[in-house]
């Protein structure tokens, strides 16, 4: 792919905007970010907070530990820490620099402050509105469709900032230009100086939190269970690395990750298995970079048709992306990659998303396993064919089907999951 062509520049910009750092699960951090922005607009620490959120936000915040809150979970904790300790200029790292004294006073602040949560009636899957009040003054901040896409800032009913929902969002880039064929072409020809800083940060951040997950005690310790039960085979290490990162992140680890498609779990799933395979195979750094371009962009391509949040587990997409990256590391060409992706999607596309929590690590392990199996099937001359369930002839048709399944077919499933999770 020519460096100066539109697709090349689009792919680089997609990577630059998608592979960004975040500390903590992105949904509670998005609430903390909106809360910090609202406090800044108000000009004071409020004594009243109202969080109105779409069902998928509530689902993904309910059970996950928020970093820098002394182990607290949920929307109230996310909003409160954003208000008292958030740096409104740091995006998804909004609470990464929270002072110890602010963390220590969080409990007292939550006891003394009225913090309400309401499910919003909205057409948007990702919708957060935070309203804060103090001494007769109020401020309001709303984010839609992207975790940091602020479309409205108000103080005392006066608009300080506003824009249309689609204005300035990541999806104003032409994600429709993505295809597995173009991704492969870009990855094998890219000038690495255009992407190396982005990928170096992903390697560094995600490896560090994975090692922390394997070293310490987080959640259900899926990474440790895999290693202790099944040993040190590369297939196990690849799954354990990604699972351990999720173990740590879902259970309050205060280390950042580099996300992909708006998700830290997907960012770790798309990268850590590929990194482990590169170590095992003693690949040159250049080959690892190109494999990560494939895994990240294949993940983003699949998620484009599904959307940021869904009842469809995003680890499935990232596991297939990781399989594609591993196939490339092992010497696979374009044919190997497309068969790997289709095989993986045929195996695991039924996994649901029922919110961010400890069991995400187990789902990640299963998704990575399917990515690896998808490639090993190809090596043995085995594959799933068009007409096998939702699989179609051609990788793009299969990805399109999966997008339809996740966005439309599972729409009612998502509502039922949210009802189950919020019942009583």
**Number of E-state strands:** 8
Distance between termini?
55 Å
Query: How many helical stretches?
Result: 17
- In terms of quaternary structure, the protein is single chain
Average pLDDT, all residues: 95
What is the count of distinct domains? 2
Q: Indicate the radius of gyration in whole angstroms.
A: 21 Å
What is the architecture of the largest domain at the second tier of CATH?
Orthogonal Bundle
Explain this structure to me?
The structure is a single chain. This protein has helices at residues 6-18, 26-42, 55-61, 75-85, 100-104, 106-112, 180-189, 196-215, 222-230, 234-249, 264-281, 285-306, 314-329, 334-348, 360-379, 395-409, 411-422, and strands at residues 21-23, 48-53, 114-119, 127-134, 137-144, 150-155, 158-162, 256-258. It is an alpha+beta fold and 424 residues long. The chain has two domains: 25-162, D-3-phosphoglycerate dehydrogenase, domain 3 (60s Ribosomal Protein L30, Chain: A, 2-Layer Sandwich), CATH 3.30.1330.90; 178-422, 2-methylcitrate dehydratase PrpD (Orthogonal Bundle). The strands form two sheets. Strands 3-2-4-5-6-7 form a six-stranded mixed sheet. Strands 1-8 form a two-stranded antiparallel ribbon. α10 (234-249) runs antiparallel to α15, α11 runs antiparallel to α12 and α12 crosses α16 (395-409).
Task: Name the features.
single chain, 424 residues, alpha+beta, 60s Ribosomal Protein L30, Chain: A, 2-methylcitrate dehydratase PrpD, 6-stranded mixed beta sheet, two-stranded antiparallel sheet, globular
